[in-house]
Design a protein that fits this description.
Oligomer: homodimer
CATH class of chain A: Mainly Beta
Radius of gyration of chain A: 13 Å
Largest interface: A-B, 34 and 34 residues
Shape of chain A: globular
Structural class of chain A: mainly beta
Strand order of the largest sheet of chain A: 2-3-9-4-7
Strand content of chain A: 35-45%
Largest sheet of chain A: 5 strands, antiparallel
CATH superfamily of chain A: Jelly Rolls
Helix content of chain A: under 10%
Number of strands of chain A: 9
CATH topology of chain A: Jelly Rolls
Chain lengths: ~120, ~120
């Protein structure tokens, strides 16, 4: 029940594509991540996933289109939908995610970028 | 799967203490509200509730203390904990909430401020 400062939490880690957990709400978690470049095509069979962009511009690639999500915007990726977040021009994009605690980082895919543990900060 | 601009959504309603739904993530919803003055003491027996402050300063009163939550900060009110959000100096505070679809506006309390329907915007 202590206020959590989002900007301050972003100073606590630097690696790209490494989610860090800042809060839990029932069976969901709030995580922060710094994205740069391209991630991995994947989907989450059973979980929706919300991306709120805090800094920069996120290019959320779907198989049939790319949605541009700017700072102050959010997008919900429905369960089962293949997606691949990426950023352009070497920009580091800061995002806050809401998702089930059970959500696997790269869903059904195993990749060198896959993280299985999200440190609490 | 369309990006949602949070500021733009806030222009779509004006009444204080009237939550509006902007997204659903699994069995949880993202709602926006404009708060001014004092709300109502209540708790949610079965649901946690996340408040992210987008504009202004929220004073989250608990029975034993008040937490000050500024723009760019968030606070999670655990299930069962009595709380009463308020603002000071007639400030209108904008918040984004993340909570179960089942969460009742004023929990176990009925009050003239209680809303039972959150319009989708």
């Amino acid at each position: 029940m202590t206020p959590i400062n989002i900007q301050q939490k972003f100073t606590k880690f630097s690696k790209n594509w490494h989610p860090h957990q800042i809060a839990i709400v029932d069976d969901m978690q709030v995580i922060l991540a710094k994205l740069k470049g391209e991630f991995v095509w994947h989907s989450h069979e059973h979980e929706d996933e919300l991306f709120q962009v805090v800094k920069g511009t996120l290019y959320m690639q779907f198989r049939d289109k790319t949605e541009i999500v700017k700072a102050g915007e959010l997008i919900v990726v429905p369960k089962g939908v293949e997606h691949n977040p990426c950023t352009k021009d070497d920009e580091e994009v800061h995002v806050l995610l809401f998702e089930k605690l059970s959500t696997a980082h790269t869903g059904n895919v195993k990749h060198e970028k896959t993280q299985t543990h999200y440190p609490k900060i």
